[in-house]
Amino acid sequence: QVQLQESGPGLVKPSQTLSLTCTVFGGSITTDYYYLNWIRQPPGKGLEWIGYTSTGGNTYYSPSLKSRTSISRDTSKNQFTLQLSSVTPEDTAVYYCTRAPSIGARYEYWGQGTQVTVSS
Hints:
It contains no helices and eleven strands. The protein is mainly beta and 120 residues long.
């Protein structure tokens, strides 16, 4: 059974870099072929896709966040990490990591989500 678990600080100050890690249990991030995504949901708003890294090591980011986003992998720990720089209060959201079998496919696995608040 595949499980995803987000971890990271719940509070980040404006202008700093938000860093979250997703640990994948029950499946390798380097075998098979699927897409590991970060998405978020700001309070009172819908889900927003941030970007993905594939098991082949490719990355792709939302055009609106691309200049501030980096997604990387640590294959030794079976983890992938989101870094979002120069955060503002508008980046306050619940952040989720997910896995999908292909681009645009329904997410088959979700983490439980982690609340990140940007505030001084």
